[in-house]
Design a protein that fits this description.
The protein has one domain (10-156): Gcn5-related N-acetyltransferase (GNAT) (Aminopeptidase). It is of the alpha+beta class. It has 5 helices and 6 strands; from the N terminus they run βαααβββαβαβ. Mean pLDDT is 87; it is low at 1-6. The protein is globular and about 40 Å long. It starts with 9 loop residues before the first strand and ends in a 9-residue tail after the last strand. Strands 1-2-3-4-5-6 form a 6-stranded mixed beta sheet, sandwiched between helices.
Length: 159
């Protein structure tokens, strides 16, 4: 007889300097290195000094599975997400984004946006799967596609 296995809880821990060695190890992966900038001591210090900036590592059963940053300006949160290369394609990105939408720090935002390289198909699919959508598939001057999730709208509800 099969046992019902529930996913263990995914928790957010505030990013601090002690997380950097784990995060930096992810950047030996060529896909990670191609799409996002490696976090640094300087970035962590900046985040801690800016009240509109939030950063968490997502941890499950003592394994760091993701990093999410959100900067809120004028009620719009800009989201940056990295999933541990060893944890990809297992639903962590989606779970992290759903948790992000429920964070009390995000409550003052009316929308979340993500700017993603159009060649990063996995990231685009992840954000779309949780209610982010784009008005245009044409990249911006920076070469990025902007996806938006209007918080409170049915299409952007959390699970």
């Amino acid at each position: 007889m099969g046992r019902n296995r529930q996913k263990s809880e995914l928790i957010f821990e505030s990013l601090d300097h002690s997380h950097l060695p784990i995060l930096k190890s992810w950047f030996s992966n060529p896909d990670t290195k191609r799409w996002v900038e490696e976090p640094s001591d300087r970035l962590v210090s900046y985040i801690k000094s800016e009240p509109q900036y939030y950063a968490w590592v997502a941890v499950q059963e003592s394994e760091t599975v993701g990093l999410v940053l959100c900067e809120i300006e004028k009620e719009v949160g800009s989201v940056y997400l990295v999933v541990n290369p060893g944890s990809r394609r297992r639903g962590y990105g989606r779970r992290i984004l759903h948790l992000l939408k429920r964070r009390p720090e995000i409550a003052r935002a009316s929308a979340l946006i993500a700017e993603i390289d159009p060649k990063n198909v996995a990231s685009l699919a992840c954000f779309r799967s949780v209610g982010f959508s784009g008005e245009s598939e044409i990249p911006s001057e920076e070469g990025l596609v902007r996806l938006t999730c209007r918080l409170g709208q049915e299409s952007c509800k959390t699970i």
